[in-house]
Specification:
This protein is an alpha/beta fold. The chain folds into three domains: about 80 residues, Orthogonal Bundle (Arc Repressor Mutant, subunit A); about 100 residues, Periplasmic binding protein-like II (D-Maltodextrin-Binding Protein, domain 2), CATH 3.40.190.10; about 100 residues, Periplasmic binding protein-like II (D-Maltodextrin-Binding Protein, domain 2, 3-Layer(aba) Sandwich), CATH 3.40.190. Helix content is about 45%, strand content about 20%. It is built from eleven helices and twelve strands. The strands form four sheets. It has a five-stranded mixed beta sheet, with helices on both faces. Helix 8 links the parallel strand 8 and strand 9.
Length: about 300
């Protein structure tokens, strides 16, 4: 058996962390076949199976989870050696987050940022995506993670993945499934304001059967929208991973619907040519955290 190399360990670490060979290849600046070959060599040297297929994603086996704990220590040790020899990442960075994405992922992202770059200080803006685009244009924020943003000249858009969404109701609300637009049109709908992706999702879903909901209450906050739905005020479309805790505790229910609610795309947006080392470090932390959580599909 040949000795395992750092390149093989990195291929395993980034594939396990980001959930796909292609994302690992993008992170390492390699082709997908090159990363796949290193993964095969890693597994041959480790003599255990570390991944199993879960749809379009790779999922860690028990052996893979054990290996990841060991490998993470190796990668962090190598990174710390490099950090000693290079200038530290420090300063303030102004970052925007789409609210649903922030509610699901931001605590874990900040934990990684503070652990990896203790001298990096994010200033956070959390809101609906459309309200943050003017802040990007006039420089009030440096970069943002937005849901299906409008394309603006002079800005770079990096596709992160698809955020799952679905119709959600309080568990106490008697709504038989599968739900169709005809069934749900009689129930009060809680939605973001017109012009937002959330509102467009509602309108498009009902329009698939030529319908409009009988009543829509508008709410500018996704967090409050979720609270209103939990209280039984009505039904709404929410990022499903944002409400994992409420679903697990039985307070909310994600409805099976026909047609299904389509996921929405998350993009990193920044002014072209202005991504500083501090900004790149922050983006790396977001990428690693979201991949480890397997938040996006």
């Amino acid at each position: 058996m040949s000795r395992m190399t750092l390149q093989q360990i990195e291929a395993f670490y980034w594939t396990a962390t980001l959930g796909s060979v292609q994302k690992a290849a993008d992170r390492l600046g390699l082709s997908q076949p090159a990363v796949s070959l290193r993964l095969k060599e890693f597994e041959r040297n480790a003599t255990r199976r570390h991944f199993e297929r879960a749809g379009r994603h790779l999922r860690l086996t028990q052996a893979g989870r054990e290996a990841l704990r060991t490998v993470r220590g190796i990668i962090e040790g190598v990174d710390s050696l490099g950090a000693d020899a290079s200038p530290g990442i420090s300063g303030t960075i102004k970052v925007g987050f789409a609210e649903g994405f922030a509610l699901a992922c931001l605590p874990q992202i900040l934990e990684r940022v503070h652990t990896t770059y203790p001298d990096l200080h994010p200033e956070l803006t959390v809101s609906i995506s459309s309200s943050m685009e003017p802040a990007l244009q006039d420089g009030r924020i440096d970069l943002a993670f937005l849901v299906e943003p409008t394309e603006l000249e002079g800005f770079t858009y990096v596709y992160f993945g698809l955020q799952p969404t679905g119709w959600v109701v309080a568990s106490s609300l008697d709504v038989p499934t599968p739900v169709t637009p005809d069934n749900l049109a009689k129930i009060r709908i809680i939605s973001n304001q017109p012009g937002t992706i959330g509102y467009r999702q509602v309108v498009r879903w009902f329009a698939s059967e030529g319908l409009k909901p009988a009543s829509i209450d508008i709410c500018s906050s996704v967090a409050i929208q979720a609270k209103l739905i939990e209280a039984g005020t009505g039904a709404g479309i929410l990022p499903t991973r944002m409400i994992d805790e409420q679903v697990a505790s039985g307070r909310l229910r994600v409805l099976e619907t026909f047609p299904p609610v389509q996921p929405v795309a998350i993009f990193l947006v920044h002014r072209t040519g202005t991504l500083t080392p501090a900004a790149r470090a922050f983006v790396d932390c977001v990428t690693e955290t979201v991949g480890q959580m397997q938040y996006l599909i």
